[in-house]
TrEMBL record, chain A:
Family named by the database record: Belongs to the ABC transporter superfamily.
Example GO molecular function: ATP hydrolysis activity
Gene3D superfamilies with a match to the protein in the record: P-loop containing nucleotide triphosphate hydrolases
GO biological process assignments: L-amino acid transport
Pfam families for the chain: ABC_tran
Lineage, broadest ranks: Bacteria, Pseudomonadati, Pseudomonadota, Alphaproteobacteria, Hyphomicrobiales
Keywords, ordered alphabetically: Amino-acid transport, ATP-binding, Nucleotide-binding, Transport
PANTHER family: HIGH-AFFINITY BRANCHED-CHAIN AMINO ACID TRANSPORT ATP-BINDING PROTEIN LIVF (PTHR43820:SF4)
Record carries keyword ATP-binding: yes
Name of this protein: Amino acid/amide ABC transporter ATP-binding protein 2 (HAAT family)
ABC transporter domain residues: 8-240
TrEMBL record, chain B:
Membrane topology: Multi-pass membrane protein
One Pfam family this sequence matches: DUF3382
Keywords from the UniProt entry: Cell membrane, Membrane, Transmembrane, Transmembrane helix
Organism superkingdom: Bacteria
Annotated protein name in UniProt: General L-amino acid ABC transporter membrane protein
PANTHER family with a match to the protein in the record: HIGH-AFFINITY BRANCHED-CHAIN AMINO ACID TRANSPORT SYSTEM PERMEASE, HIGH-AFFINITY BRANCHED-CHAIN AMINO ACID TRANSPORT SYSTEM PERMEASE PROTEIN LIVM
Organism: Bosea psychrotolerans
Amino acid sequence: MTEAQPLLAVRGVKTYYGKIIALKGVDIDVRAGEIVTMIGANGAGKSTLMMTIFGNPQAREGTITYEGRDITKMPSHLIARLGIAQSPEGRRIFPRMTVYENLQMGAAVRDLAHFDEDLEKICVLFPRIKERLQQRGGTLSGGEQQMVAIARALMARPKLLLLDEPSLGLAPLIVKQIFEAIRELNKTEGLTVFLVEQNAFHALKLAHRGYVMVNGVITMSGTGQELLANPQVRAAYLEGGRH
Amino acid sequence: MATTISTPAAPPRDIKAALKEAGFAALVTFGLCIPIIAWGTRQNMENVLVLDQRWEAVAWAVAIVFVGRLLVVLRQQGKAERKSLVRFLPHGTFAFFQRHSGFFSALGLGFLITFPLIAIMLTGWGGALKWIDNFGVQILIYVMLGWGLNIVVGLAGLLDLGYVAFYAVGAYSYALLAKNFGLSFWLLLPLSGILAAFWGMLLGFPVLRLRGDYLAIVTLAFGEIIRLVLINWVDFSNGYAGISGIPRPSFFGIPFNASDEGFAAVFGLEFSPLYRTIFLYYLILALALLTAFVSLRLRRLPVGRAWEALREDEIACRSLGINTTNTKLTAFSIGAMFGGFAGAFFSARQGFISPESFVFMESAMVLAIVVLGGMGSLWGCAIAATAMIGGTELLRELDWLKAIFGNDFDPTKYRMLIFGLAMVVIMIWKPRGLISTREPTAFLKEKKAISSDMVQEGHG
């Protein structure tokens, strides 16, 4: 790890839903080339953080900088143009569009010049997608939909990929495949990944570094291995929950 | 293969249960009919209220519901055995039409272009006027409105209950500018569209954050506001009295009248009001086709794809970096623009407009056309518009029914009843509209290779 400026820096971010505070001052660093995960229970504010980074909702206090630029008050569609892509919670595939069209929508922020080339890469990474290209998104299985959701985000050629609970509701074998693909992307393409997960065991094993969020604040941070070995983390997120 | 699939033992058809359910439905109908149909009140010559007994109408209603419910129940029971007892159309009819949609589009277009000639040939010069005007032009106006609203509701998924507002803006723009400033139809047609698009944008801004029911309510209110302003701002719009004597469109400068400079005289023809009607017919046909062409093209462009993505999932759109604000505003304004075109045409055709023409019922009608047709389908809209508008016009032609039901029978009175019935039937039979499958707008280049792969694996 270099000591240079991180790719994404979140400083003292507070996010509200109306009067209710969801994030109570969060600090996070994601350096280029890292996989960083954030684990936490339901309702801890993990997804809110991810959405706040993407500008919807916007942080009321604090700053978010990406490549040295302040993106705190930037609208989502401009953030997407800077090279941040998001695979939202619950997959959110366009159900009546074909997989091919879904992937095209992923490239909406760019011109389609490299589309075919990128599609090739995706098909190598997720061979299942290749079989399903002409099928409607809504007819895919959960695992396939998750793969399409990640692939769709990748079509924008992001530098930073935000993944919100990619393992949600999936069979352990599929989760393994998906996490394997994320590791592969990080290793070969140098893609920086920020991953929000409830599936703490897999996420921490995959990640270089991790954060633990409880009730809108970061309570712990460290390398993936450190957190995996931490007795508190084990007690709260791992024991009995190992998949 | 059929031989390899073991079919589970089909449950015996339960006639008794079906009869029971049909009987129950008939009972409910009977209960509802007593206050609504059984007793009619009217005033007689001495201004005394008289109670009319109409038990035979009640009997008809109950019988219709009983038989209808019985058929539906039997059909549903048949469905469990993978075959239906009552099928309205042979299996695969829609798939057949969809496979040959290119052919049928050409056929339909050919029919529309030759329609005035066919009408003249079949009914003569006198009779053709009614057919071209009441059926041709009237239906095409609604087809065009349906296709315009289809951009907003069908493609972008924004439920708009006030579409008639843009129709009104277009109509009044043409009427006022043509009457007060004497501008020509060909200049005002695009201008009316632009003004309507501008109002579409104005409506778009406040409703950007709304979806579904809330959006529907605000658009409904917007439609009413436009109408109420037209009624109450008398200096501007002449209120309830409306605007009359609106200049008619000319044939590129040649008016349609009996004078020496008129269309008939210039082209050496005998004067007939039919020429104007035929001209209007082709004009609205061209406008409707323009609407269809533009919405087909837009679907393949990024903005059209963004509309469809927005209809599917707004949050996903945001996370993909699509500017949802612009996407919604373009949908509203382009949809409104076509409404404005149609409005300008309407006022030019009628020569008289008043707020009466722009009531909520019109919005509901156009929306029903879009929804019944299957949201997003141009063919569906065209079929639904033809059935609904053509159907209500056809009711005027059913004078022979008087022979059966007696001389007081007026089929046009049953317009709304049939309209409602048709909606209920379609929503039961095809809940997503007549044509509910969506054609993909983008294909892989090596389409054939992929599809044969899928067949091999049993997905094709």
